[in-house]
Amino acid sequence: MAHRVFNFAPGPATLPVPALKRAQGDLLDYQGTGIGILEHSHRKPSYMAVHAETKKLLRDLLEIPDGYSTLFMQGGARGQFAIVPMNLLHPGTTADYVVTGTWGEKAVAEAKLVGEAREAANTAGDDGKHTRVPALDEIAMAKDAAYLHLTTNNTIYGTQFFDFPDTGDVPLILDMSSDICWQPMDVSKADLIYAGAQKNLGIPGVTLVIIKDELIEKGRRDIPSIFQYRTIEKADSLQNTAPTFAIYMMRNVLAWMADQGGLEEMERRNRKKAGLIYDAISAAPDFYRCPVEEASRSVMNVVFRLPTEELEGVFVEEAAAAELMGIKGHRSVGGMRVSLYNSMSIEGAEKLAELMGAFAKANG
Amino acid sequence: MAHRVFNFAPGPATLPVPALKRAQGDLLDYQGTGIGILEHSHRKPSYMAVHAETKKLLRDLLEIPDGYSTLFMQGGARGQFAIVPMNLLHPGTTADYVVTGTWGEKAVAEAKLVGEAREAANTAGDDGKHTRVPALDEIAMAKDAAYLHLTTNNTIYGTQFFDFPDTGDVPLILDMSSDICWQPMDVSKADLIYAGAQKNLGIPGVTLVIIKDELIEKGRRDIPSIFQYRTIEKADSLQNTAPTFAIYMMRNVLAWMADQGGLEEMERRNRKKAGLIYDAISAAPDFYRCPVEEASRSVMNVVFRLPTEELEGVFVEEAAAAELMGIKGHRSVGGMRVSLYNSMSIEGAEKLAELMGAFAKANG
Q: Is B351 a catalytic residue?
């Protein structure tokens, strides 16, 4: 039995042990073929079945409606920061971006290299930091915007959207890299959803894109074919060699989610885990401080501060001694960040919450 | 001990068993951290050491000179078909492409979506098929070309360049996806080399780019930042979450190559393996036929035909019964294709050559 710690890292993140063991068993010999899963051709039935199963699991778990396609791409969310405007930001139009943190800033900056883009909202405070997502009526979207883009969960600032604006005819684009599948959702509210896999869905190297077929057709045709969504859709994401193992791992993780009870169960666990950490913060209000406004607090990444940076350093050390790893905040904001993606167990959150209580008592 | 067959597939391709076993051991607990290799952050020392070691192994094995950078990107060679012209095909200039098969065709087509591109050579016969690479003096490169692009090895047609043109001040761009590291090379002859990893270097999901620093600086700045080589170089390929496991697997494969004796030894084995198959073809000239001109015959992918398609089908079946898999030719050309990348053992080639002899005798 392998030694395992609790890994609260923000991504690449912890994975379910059954998903890992399955991979371990398939590495040298997949299904008795004498060929490991890493070595199977993307054009052969053995891998194609994994590919199809991954799509089916996504469709079932997220209840993706007809009229939407699921694509597997490469390049991460950062790739999509470019590929979305390359496809959808036609000359003469302007795209609207909701900026709630670093990822939104980078997304709008990339769009500006492609065409016209503006900020429909920006929640940065005077210090440049973000402590909330905007109310929906704060979003000043132009009625003729090419699209509205927003980051649903901010890993660095620990904020999250729990509702999305109704954009009418304007396509709504959601970067859900860090919270896709955290709960059931109504996919039809969005026109394009994308997510790097390395948080809730698996490992880095594959980017999931769920896109309305109408939007695919509206995409530009004068950009490189490999970046046109229609190329990927037409070839079922096999226009060239797919990142087969990253898709295989997504399959393993999704199969684990389905086995555990699907997204309703993921939501129950995620709320429970986040509740444990936020409660531990509230229980020692003179010691812990969460900078995020209550209604915007992320269920995926809980950020908080201790009274001093010195105490923060000691806390990280004590946590590590208790095998609670990866809780240091992003270098741009400091403090603590506890990532509680689907694969983190309730037990892990309980142990960390306990330590928080004991540490506040001992050092408060 | 896992059951293993001989897998002659064109990529994703067979991998060295030691590289796979190493991965198997690291999957749930990497170096006693209690965190599997798939779950390690790309920003933490544990992974960063793998990243650095991969670069070091490449530099040592290929003797990459100073003034060149090694980048890890995503999207495969097909991604580079777009990214090369996006960076280097400035308005008002024209890029020259040597077309020796499907990949060259696709590369020049993609460049034409970005800017001006022309074919400096095209070896297609009247039937549209390719049976050779051009002599160097057949390549009609313009003196002021933005660059000259060529595919060093053609997986589908089984042809390979064994020498490269001296392009003077015109940057030489080599797509070496299917033959990088097959032998030692003088990297300084090229200005940019790229290669998807799934043949000689590891698994799909990472694309190696070796680029002259001067060329990075000459790249366009008005394209999305994530596709600018300078972004990748400045961030040491960590501008966003890297495909960590694909890079880790490249490390394992490169470490295996170094351990086996480096690229001199790879070349010795590759020539031996290809010699066995080509000899088996020559030994039964009335039965087997290699359509490729002798001087252009690939050491990586040996293509050949049998007298009839029916016999080809029987041969594939007999090979499979002998656990010699993945030898069917590309659907666009038919026949047989035997891929003999670095990780294929001499034993595999011997067994296949033996079968070829026996099969010709029995059916000729």
A: no
A254 Cβ under 8 Å from any chain B Cβ: no
Determine whether the interchain pair A35/B81 forms a contact, defined as Cβ–Cβ distance below 8 Å.
Answer: no
Question: How buried is residue B125: exposed, middle or buried, by Cβ count under 10 Å (0-12/13-18/19+)?
Answer: exposed
* Cα-based distances in Å from A167 to A82, A119, A162, A179, A221: 22, 15, 16, 21, 25
The predicted model gives B104-124 an average pLDDT of 98
Of B94, B97, B142, whose CA–CA distance to B114 is shortest?
B94
Query: What is the pTM for the complete model shown?
Result: 0.98
At B317, the amino acid letter reads E
Which one-letter amino acid corresponds to residue A195? A
Query: A128 and chain B: CB distance < 8 Å anywhere?
Result: no
Q: Compute the mean pLDDT over every residue in chain B, rounded to the nearest whole number.
A: 97
Place of tokens 């408060």: A364
Residue B256 designated active-site: no
Most A CBs within 10 A among B1, B5, B35, hence the mutation to make, goes to B35
Q: Give the C-alpha separation, A91 to A69, whole Å.
A: 25
Mutation for testing the A interface, residue in B194, B203, B324, B337 having most A CBs under 10 Å: B203
**Residue A157 in this model has a pLDDT that exceeds 90:** yes
- Domains assigned to chain B: 17-259 (3.40.640.10), 263-363 (3.90.1150.10)
ipTM > 0.85, yes or no: yes
